[in-house]
Please model this.
Amino acid sequence: MNELPFIERFTHEQRLHESRQIMNKYRSSAPVIVEPKDDKTLKIDKTKFLVPWDLTYGQFMYIVRKRLKISPQDAIFMFCNSTLPNSQETIHTIYQKHGKSDGFLYFVYAFENTFG
Model:
């Protein structure tokens, strides 16, 4: 099944409206979209996350790893705007640098088998 990315499924206005509603209701969190790099990559069970501003990128990556149920030998790389954030950066800092005009922060993940 070839599902379109979130950014292509909804218009800019729809995404902006949804992000504003989320941010008005949950002021201490960022609306984040996490999607696979391509159709061949293991799919995550949900793509929208509400992430506390003070959570670090490393902590968020741990949450994503748990949701994907991947083995310890599989490395995951989550890119934001084609860059790999520092694991100690907060979601707030990343959002300020890479948040889109629709109000969402987008991450794309890919895998690499590191021990086999």
Summary: The chain is about 35% helix and 25% strand. The longest helix spans residues 12-25.
